[in-house]
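Students often ask what a 'structure token' actually looks like in practice. Rather than answer in the abstract, let us consider Glycosyl transferase, a protein of 382 residues. Its sequence is given first.
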Amino acid sequence: MEPGKATILHVIGQLGLGGAERQLFLLVRKLSDRYGFIIISYDPDHAQYVDALREIGATVFVIPRQNGIGGRLRFLLKIRDIIREASPEIVQTWLISANFWGRAAYLCARPQKPLIASIRNVKEARYYVLSRILDAILSRWTDIVICNTHAAKASLLRYGISPAKIRVIHNGIEPDKYDVSISKKTIRQRLGIPQENFVIGTIGRITRQKNYPLFVSMAETLLKRNSHLHFIVVGNGELRPQTERMIEERGLRNRFTLTGARNDIAEVLKAFDLFILTSSWEGFPNVLMEAMCGRVPVIATAVGGVAELVQDGANGLLVEPGDLEGLVRAVETLVSDTERRTRLGDAGRRSIENHYTLGHMAERTAAIYEELMAGRNKGSLR
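Now compare that with the structural description of the same chain:
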């Protein structure tokens, strides 16, 4: 760590290509001129951000979590030892698993420094009974709980977390990164997508959360009425084989492009005419922000913090989760209305620029760091 910089130590389960992991990376990159950062994670199989974090000056530890009572205890004590040796000004934990392990290690280390926990989606805030009990205990020693949606905050309040401890900081993004020069024709050629088709796409891990069966059913229904549509799925995940099989069984293979995970999302979005998010639960989706940055009109299920980002009819359209008929109606409305698509796409970009930039997110987080280090909350909330 550089002399003179306060050290912030983060504990997060993995450093793979997830939304929380990306927000942590962006936060560290944005604030690395002010603070030194130490990151502890414990999933070596999902560690794509490790090298990038080290390149911007963060110290990163990847400690495999061991099985069995003895293995878990040794794992906990390793985190404790790093906290003790680093003696950071603040410890911050991310997501339900690290909120437990990181805070438990913090208590073992007894650093007498501020402690922050982070909740990133509504389902995480509605965790199992045992987790709620453990969280209630650990929250006694937690100075601040940062949520990225008001929906998650509401869930925490229902479970008895003190409102004085909860702060809402929405995710942040860099809009100018999505001002790319590639043409729609070029990126469609690169992806093998027909130039003449109307392209409806989604981006995200292929997991139960994202509800790809709804996306595929939507495509099947729409194609019965409009044969000039093409669908693109960008991402990987454990349910990709099942999703591909579903597409094949419904005779839709020639109407779908599955790209796998990509790191050129800003360019890929240029191929889209419409972005769809069919998730069953969410926090504050990065992919939705990305589509809005790219001026792609969006339709999303009204789950988690999505309704905080998308104002129905103003900068996008909302549908109820699992509502196939409502989703199809919304898509057909925009497919046939070029002017409205343009208006919604432009409004989406303005929303991000005005409220949800990386600068907004980083400055609000830094303000909490400074508040805690100044001692205005330390001890008073416990």
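One point worth highlighting: The domain at 6-172+358-373 is CATH 3.40.50.2000 (Rossmann fold). Ask yourself how you might have guessed this from the sequence alone, and why that guess would often be unreliable.
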